[in-house]
Design a protein that fits this description.
The protein is mostly helical. Helix content is 69%, strand content 3%.
Length: 236
C-alpha cells in the first residue's frame, strides 16, 4: 500500500466502480463450501469489499471521519486475507480465535450474563464447553493459536502500515483526545483558542488519502481473486 504520499489518481466514482467489479468477480468465484480456508477467503473478501463500499458512501455523504472508522476495519480484513493467502496453515489461527470466542460466550452464559441468557436456556452449556475445549486443543496441537493484531500485521509484512495508517485511523475509533481535536476543534494558531464544531469533513488532502487507501484495498482483493482465478484450487 502507498501510505507515504497522497495519490489523487483515485476518484470516488472510480473506486465505487472497482468495488462493484470486484464483487461481480467474487460472486463468480467457485469454491469448496466444506473447506474452512475457502469459506474464510470468500467471506473476508466480501466483508472487505462491503466495508470499502460503506467508506465510499460515507465520503459521498459528508461523513469523512466516520469513514475512517470503517476503513480501519477494512484494513484489518485485508491483513487477515493476505495472511490467509500467504500461509497455508493460517486458517488454524482463525479457527483458534473463533473457538476462543465461542468458549468465552459459553462461560459467560454459565455466570448468568443476561446477554447470553438464551444460550444458557437452550444449550447444555457444560457439554458445549467440553466439546469446544476439545476442538481448541486439537487446533492448538496443529499449531493454531489466537494472534494479536500486531502479530497479524507483522506476519504479512505490513509493519509500516500498522505504525502509520492503521494507528492514525484509530484516533477516530477510540475516545482519544487527539481524535476529538482532529474532528471537532478549530484551533486559532495565534491565540490557541478554539471553536467546537460538528459534522465536518476532513481536509481535502485527508479525503484524498481516504479515497486512495480505499482504492488500494479494493485492488488488493482484485489481485488475489485474479491470482486464484475463477475457482479456488483444491489445495488452497
Amino acid at each position: 500500500m502507498r501510505t507515504a504520499e497522497i495519490d489523487t489518481d483515485f476518484t470516488l466514482p472510480d473506486v465505487e466502480g472497482r468495488i462493484l467489479g470486484a464483487i461481480d468477480q467474487l460472486q463468480n468465484t467457485k469454491f469448496d463450501k466444506q473447506k474452512f480456508r475457502h469459506q474464510i477467503f470468500v467471506g473476508l473478501s466480501a466483508s472487505l469489499l462491503e466495508r470499502c463500499h460503506a467508506v465510499v458512501f460515507l465520503l459521498k455523504n459528508g461523513k469523512g471521519f466516520d469513514a475512517k472508522i470503517i476503513l480501519r476495519s477494512a484494513l484489518e480484513h485485508l491483513v487477515e486475507l493476505r495472511n490467509l493467502c500467504d500461509f497455508p496453515d493460517y486458517h488454524l489461527h482463525l479457527q483458534a480465535s473463533f473457538l476462543r470466542g465461542i468458549r468465552t460466550q459459553l462461560r459467560e452464559a454459565t455466570k448468568g450474563n443476561p446477554f447470553f441468557a438464551r444460550i444458557a436456556s437452550e444449550l447444555p452449556i457444560e457439554d458445549e464447553i467440553a466439546s469446544t475445549d476439545k476442538k481448541m486443543k486439537e487446533v492448538e496441537e496443529m499449531g493454531g493459536k489466537a494472534l494479536s493484531i500486531t502479530d497479524k500485521f507483522n506476519r504479512t509484512g505490513m509493519t509500516h502500515e500498522y505504525e502509520s495508517v492503521y494507528r492514525s485511523l484509530s484516533l477516530q475509533v477510540h475516545p482519544s483526545y487527539s481524535g476529538i481535536i482532529e474532528r471537532h476543534f478549530d484551533i486559532d494558531p495565534s491565540t490557541g483558542d478554539f471553536t467546537v464544531r460538528g459534522f465536518q469533513m476532513p481536509r481535502d488532502d485527508g479525503i484524498a488519502v481516504l479515497t486512495d487507501t480505499t482504492g488500494q484495498l479494493v485492488d488488493h482483493v482484485v489481485e488475489l481473486l485474479t491470482r486464484y482465478g475463477p475457482a479456488l484450487e483444491p489445495d488452497f
